[in-house]
Design brief:
With about 180 residues, this protein is of the alpha/beta class. Helix content is about 15%, strand content about 30%. The chain is globular and about 50 Å long. The mean pLDDT is about 90.
Length: about 180
């Protein structure tokens, strides 16, 4: 029997700090590793422990919340199906934050795609674009319910704000957790 293990950077409880679910409590399962090397990534990719599924579930169950977000790094570089199936047994609402380059397993309730390359998943619940002056028209006809622009590391806030005003399909997403000093 194969023992499944995942590289987990951390599991913690906080509010969702960005996008459509801002302000909602979530248990964050932060995977280590990514198929891209973005210069603005805020995950310590080299810091991780190997976790078995029972350990992940037991850690998630410690918190008084039924919302879980699979984030990274890039969670879709892993086989997430066993984790999703196990969390669903305990009635968890599961969100994923992905760059959209990997497979999204069945059972995910809310998909946030934050593309960093031209080849990415073109549908989901939320498109969250780290804004660096891109032509937004290239994204506006994709199959998403919500369109968010996020300043790059909270550095170009006014430029992003102005882009939202000029393109009203988009909403501004600030990293609230960073602004208030929590994880």
């Amino acid at each position: 029997m194969k023992i499944l293990r995942w590289k987990i950077n951390e599991i913690f409880y906080s509010i969702q700090g960005e996008g459509h679910n801002t302000g909602l409590p979530f248990v964050f399962v932060r995977f280590s590793g990514c198929n891209l090397k973005c210069d603005f990534c805020d995950t310590m990719q080299e810091s991780y422990k190997f976790w078995k599924i029972a350990d992940i579930i037991n850690e998630v169950k410690k918190y008084p919340c039924k919302n879980v977000v699979l984030t990274g790094g890039e969670p879709s570089i892993y086989d997430l199906e066993p984790i999703v199936k196990e969390l669903k047994k305990f009635d968890y609402y599961i969100a994923i934050e992905t760059n959209g380059t990997g497979k999204i397993p069945d059972g995910i309730d809310f998909v946030t795609v934050s593309p960093k390359t031209a080849d990415f998943l073109k549908k989901g619940n939320e498109l969250k674009l780290v804004y660096k002056g891109q032509d937004l028209r290239d994204y506006e006809n994709l199959d998403f319910h919500f369109f968010y622009l996020q300043p790059c590391s909270n550095k170009n806030v006014i430029e992003t704000y102005n882009a939202v005003l000029a393109n009203p399909k988009w909403r501004l997403s600030l990293q609230i957790h960073k602004l208030i000093g929590v994880r």
